[in-house]
Specification:
This protein has 187 residues and is mostly helical. The chain has helices spanning 2-15, 20-31, 35-53, 59-70, 91-104, 145-162, 168-174; strands at 76-79, 84-87, 120-124, 135-137, 140-144. It has one domain.
Length: 187
């Protein structure tokens, strides 16, 4: 009985990847106003998905590439009196933020090799009736934390939607995504 249940759990893991638990964790943190948990979890998602896509590439390269493909367009716009395409947040700057925040507890990315154009970030919590997001003041990007987190999890959902059309080895690695068992289980 114990072996059969363990086998069923292992088989269930190989049927389908779902990033839903991670996306839901971010949404729950946002709903609770737990901005630190939301942001820190969000910043790990491009790492996780990037590794599934290509475990042979460096963490920084796959993070930057994934962010630019699945989130970057949300942080680009044509602005100015003489309209010019402007990128507010690159994958490189987001990776630098991930390193600074997760490893140093800092929103300054000056010491990060990966950064491309920003020096720092300022995250703000949402306020009723106001959106303060994606505003660049000199070399600092002002970001509303709930919008940023939802932009990244939307990118993750988009990536997951494309998964069935990806190479078999990517699909196989995707089934290895960890999960926390919440029902009956055995080891």
């Amino acid at each position: 009985m114990r072996m059969a249940l363990g086998r069923r759990l292992r088989e269930a893991r190989t049927v389908h990847l779902s990033t839903q638990p991670l996306r839901e964790a971010v949404e729950q943190a946002i709903a609770q106003g737990n901005w630190y948990a939301a942001l820190m979890t969000t910043l790990t998602l491009p790492d996780i998905i990037g590794r599934i896509e290509d475990p042979t590439t460096s963490s920084s390269a796959r993070y930057i590439d994934w962010f630019d493909r699945f989130v970057g367009a949300r942080y680009s716009a044509t602005v100015g009196r003489d309209p010019q395409p402007t990128v507010f947040l690159t994958g490189a700057d987001c990776y630098a933020l991930r390193c600074a925040l997760l490893h140093e507890g800092s929103d300054s990315i000056l010491r990060q090799r990966a950064r491309s154009s920003l020096e720092a970030f300022r995250f703000v919590a949402p306020r009723p009736g106001r959106i303060v997001h994606n505003n660049r003041i000199r070399d600092t990007l002002l970001v509303q934390v709930d919008i940023f987190c939802r932009d990244v999890i939307a990118g993750v959902a988009s990536w997951e939607h494309m998964l069935p059309s990806m190479a078999v080895d990517i699909q196989k690695r995707a089934t290895e995504l960890f999960r926390i068992e919440t029902g009956s289980y055995t080891i």
